Amino acid sequence: MKTVFVIIFSLSCFKFVITKNLPFGIDFEDCGGKLELVSISISTCHYIPCKIERRNLAEITIEYDPRNSPYQANTLEFDARWIIDGLQTKALFIPETCNNDGCIRNSPNGLLQFTVLVYVSDTLPIGLMGYLYWRTVYPNNGDLLFCSRIPVFIY
Fold this sequence. Notes:
Blueprint: E1 5-11, E2 14-20, E3 25-26, E4 29-30, E5 36-42, E6 50-52, E7 56-65, E8 75-84, E9 87-90, E10 92-94, E11 97-99, E12 105-106, E13 112-120, E14 128-137, E15 144-154
Parallel strand pairs: 6-15
Antiparallel strand pairs: 1-2, 3-5, 4-15, 5-7, 7-13, 8-9, 8-11, 8-14, 10-13, 12-13, 14-15
């Protein structure tokens, strides 16, 4: 059985998570929400900034802690944007919503996780630093459940 250590510490209003012994766990900036965002992994990323190639799919897995939450764990809605050189571009991803369809599953840590595929558009500028800004909301009332910014470099 693989041992997983997650160390969380806060600096100002940002929370950085360091994951050990996870295949692709990366550091990210937690920008708030009602649930605790525990880890993010991106199939093509091992270090920050994430080097992501245009015209490809990146598999993103997000793990979160739903304990003490009034929200149903099986209904989530996603919004993601590439922010590069001050310009925002909506990210295309599948699925856009999890609705009792098996999208959300138990993680090895006893928490919850989901995986989405994000298309890295060929219209994104290459050779520049930026962010993938990710928001997950509760669709019944629009409450922000969690949000993150992941530093990226598009090539």
